[in-house]
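#struct-pred
JK: can someone run the complex with fe (ii) ion? inputs below
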Amino acid sequence: MLKLGCLIDRLGSHIVSVSCQSSEGLNNVNRVSSQALAYTVRESYLCGPVQRRNPAGICAAGVATYGENAVEYESHAQAAEDKVGVLLLNLGGPDTLHDVQPFLFNLFADPDIIRLPRLFRFLQWPLAKLISVVRAPKSKEGYAAIGGGSPLRKITDEQVEHAQALKTALEAKNLPVNVYVGMRYWYPFTEEAVQQIKRDRITRLVVLPLYPQFSISTTGSSIRVLQNIFREDAYLSRLPVSIIRSWYQREGYVNSMADLIQKELGKFQKPEEVMIFFSAHGVPVSYVEKAGDPYRDQMEECIYLIMQRLKDRGINNDHTLAYQSRVGPVKWLKPYTDEVLVELGQKGVKSLLAIPVSFVSEHIETLEEIDMEYKELALESGIENWGRVPALNCTPSFITDLADAVIEALPSALAMSAPKNISQEDDHNPVRYAIKMFFGSILAFVLFFSPRMINAFRNQLF
Ligand SMILES: C=CC1=C(C)c2cc3[nH]c(cc4nc(cc5[nH]c(cc1n2)c(C)c5CCC(=O)O)C(CCC(=O)O)=C4C)c(C)c3C=C
Ligand SMILES: [Fe+2]
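RT: done, structure tokens with the ligand placed:
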């Protein structure tokens, strides 16, 4: 029998992390895809290495075995009036302080953010409620400091307006295009965007997550939502879709980042002495090491490409990568941004340029965490000259590159049809369900009221 401490550790590692089912998950993928049954989010992790061989970073949704059908649907669509949709996926953020707790609830209720073992899955919502209530005061302080809400919706809408280049390019090919925004945790929700896509009778769809690198917790989570909606609907399950899973390796993105860095370096008195400090949003280590999230590999490759581009321009500064914004009682990717800043200060680094690299819009973690908290920490630690590269937002070269990515992805659109996963049927067995509920409740009671868990909440680790 497992000891209580060991159980707590095991449960802890599932809180804000993906469950240790990777080998089972990978077996599932092989089984499922070989039977051509389902496109699963897990398959999308496997797409990481595939993308490396695919310079455009494009991986069509829908397993290859659907190819024949997809071609059929596609040619059918083209015969009728072809109407292209572009769905921009993003995280979403609270518009007001009042929205913070419900926004956090949506975030923590996501099984790709808090992945509980099967036995505890019925606790997802109560746990999300508990954590969102405990976390909300700290979160609200942050949003209050940046004007009382997240700027994400506004910036994403501006990015859509600036995507005129995309419309012009497609309309020149006689392809009318509609651009939609689907947020994962706040308005306008992905579900709303999809309903609009359906009403507009879109015939081909390109899905573009606004995260340069793929993570289970971001792009993976949004794709899972899409997959769930699409397989329930006859029209959507036949719609040819192309998903651009990651695009950090695109020339236009790398160049745009190098341009911004070069410009900010030029503002320092001695640009060549500045430490280039990339700060990426972290993920729990278990995502990468157990669930196969390609996020860390893609991040490192992304930094390498940007630094190479700077070298091509004669910029040879030292650089480093660290991870910020950890939440909860589990291990996150290291090194941690706050610890590295202190170390650099102690080592005598005097000038530092911070570069947010996992997200393309200004948000709470750039405007509050980097600009306020980390800046203060850096200055206290001995760094004298601080700079921060702005997020790409609507930088023209970046938006043009996204438009190109969409145009390149269009021909590979395939139907995303996917019947229900067999394993989900287990939950319909009433005896199994009752047994699970009984033992799950006892275990949950013991674990959540253990001193260690209570301490984690009291110390505001969430
Ligand atoms: C690539 C980007 C992101 C990854 C990876 C990511 C993973 C991740 N995030 C949390 C928990 C929180 N994230 C929060 C806000 C937030 N996260 C991202 C991006 C990534 N998250 C963005 C852009 C934002 C900001 C949205 C905005 O309103 O401006 C929050 C809320 C803020 C707070 O309380 O700190 C939480 C909580 C986890 C647990 C996770 C990986 C498992
Ligand atoms: Fe986050």
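RT: quick notes.
The beta strands are 58-60, 84-90, 177-183, 204-209, 240-244, 275-281, 319-324, 351-356, 385-388, 414-415.
Residues 281, 325 surround fe (ii) ion (ligand 2) (CB under 6 Å).
JK: thanks, will look after standup
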